[in-house]
């Protein structure tokens, strides 16, 4: 084990205590439920935007709680969905009277636990909850024979854009429709160049020899669809961008928002180098225009090395909401 | 026949077996998932086993409902809602039963497995816990139809669950996180089918 830990069983609670201590003006924590909320409670009359999932994807999700993004986030064990009680507590904490939009990534555990939570809330008389499930990963075949595409990088973009829309006072139905549209406009593809190690087991999630890469990885340290020799950054950029461009059906002149996301163990030096390759490919080969970009570690898999590319087909409204102020521990601009 | 004490022995036995198998289940999960199935199941059943020491239960169904709620609240992942739903539904037909015989148990087993299918929408061959539970249910029913005792029905169910678990090895997963691996999920026994087989094996040892 090479991690800075006390007790592996306490890692999530201890990390949340530190997150709140580091950002005392921004967020608070309900330690019992591992729910992080905006300091000062829900905003009256505003749709509450809630997300949640396993821990180990930091800054997602607790790091995106704050003005212009999430009202509450619930944090499961590492790479394990929160339980229904946690989703219930997060939805209650985020409700300002206008209902709650719950943003989930399409993983069976997250979906099942949230379903039970929504059933419990309905039995208890509210708040009203609309659920939106992101499923942007082109590495997974979307068919009746799989659990469907995973939710990955587009989740960050959905939370930012819908967070801004909720801040403007849009109602629950409108926020949910926008979230589904952003999800439908976005696609992602990821690659790992090393595995990550779970605090609970102290063992790598898979064995990847040096010089190899796992193409088409998700965000839980699971192996990808294929193992290939690790190519140059230019070749890796092409392997990530081409399937996304094809799946989105992007045409020359289309505007896109790009998230070049690190998996947690890749330095910014490499991520920026990769972004240069991705941008050049998009501009010169595909002919689309990068109108906004975000480069860094935003939806991670502990210390896994590698990156993912998310492309979002943009329009003026999406760009406007993207540019709106956001003040969270993990994302901050315009304010 | 099985009374409240027997059901508490089942959960205590399952907790012990799952704790002992935690590393093995983790290894199976590591091959096609993220490796936490063993620790999650051990944690959830450990907490469930502790219930009997902390609280007096008036009936079998009250106890099993609490077990279901405890699993939902402590296991996490997909297994939490699935095993939790199993026990919540399993408890229903046990209402007003103080000493469950083979017929009450059959009703409960059907209700529990139906609950898992309703929540997880799994079919046989998807490479999930249902691949152990479906043949177990069938074997239980067959033995029951022949007039076998609860002990013999549970033995038949446990053996069928073990065979169902082993039969998941060559399958390509179609549900859950393993489905993201596509063809690469073949060649590994499913961790959910393995924990389901443990649950039935413990039932055969404690409830007969």
Topology:
The complex is a heterodimer of chains A (335) and B (208).
Chain A lengths: L10 H12 L4 E4 L4 E4 L9 E8 L16 E7 L5 H11 L5 E6 L2 H16 L5 E6 L19 H14 L4 H14 E9 L17 E4 L10 E4 L3 H16 L6 E8 L5 H19 L2 E8 L8 E9 L2 H8 L2 E2 L4 E2 L2
Parallel strand pairs in A: 3-4, 3-5, 5-6, 10-11
Antiparallel strand pairs in A: 1-2, 2-4, 7-8, 7-12, 8-9, 10-12, 13-14
Chain B lengths: L1 E2 H17 L1 H11 L4 H18 L5 H15 L4 H13 L7 E2 L1 H19 L9 H16 L4 H17 L24 H16 L2
Antiparallel strand pairs in B: 1-2
Describe this structure in words.
Chain A: GO terms for molecular function: glycerone kinase activity. Chain A: It comes from Ornithinimicrobium humiphilum. Chain A: InterPro entries: DhaK_1 (IPR012736), DhaK_dom (IPR004006), Dihydroxyacetone_Kinase (IPR050861). The complex is a heterodimer of chains A (335) and B (208). By secondary structure, chain A is α/β, with parallel strands linked by helices. Chain A has 2 domains: 174 residues, Dihydroxyacetone kinase, domain 1 (Rossmann fold, 3-Layer(aba) Sandwich); 141 residues, Hypothetical Protein Tm841, Chain: A,domain 3 (2-Layer Sandwich), CATH 3.30.1180. Helix content of chain A is 33%, strand content 24%. In chain A, a hairpin with a 4-residue loop joins strand 1 and strand 2. The mean pLDDT of chain A is 95. Chain B has 208 residues and is mainly alpha-helical. Helix content of chain B is 68%, strand content 2%. Chain B is built from 9 helices and 2 strands, in the order βαααααβαααα. Chain B has a two-stranded antiparallel sheet. The longest helix of chain B is centred in the middle third of the chain and has 19 residues. Chains A and B meet through strand 4 and helix 3 of A and helix 2, helix 4 and helix 5 of B.
Principal-axis shape of chain A equals: globular
How big is the Rg of chain B? 16 Å
Classified in CATH, the superfamily of the largest domain in chain A is Dihydroxyacetone kinase, domain 1
Number of domains of chain A: 2
Q: What order do the helices and strands of chain B follow? A: EHHHHHEHHHH
Estimated structural class of chain B: mainly alpha
Number of strands of chain A: 14
CATH classification class of the largest domain in chain A: Alpha Beta
Radius of gyration of CA atoms of chain A, rounded to a whole number: 19 Å
Low-confidence residue ranges of chain A: none
Structural class of chain A: alpha/beta
Describe the main β-sheet of chain B briefly. Answer: 2 strands, antiparallel
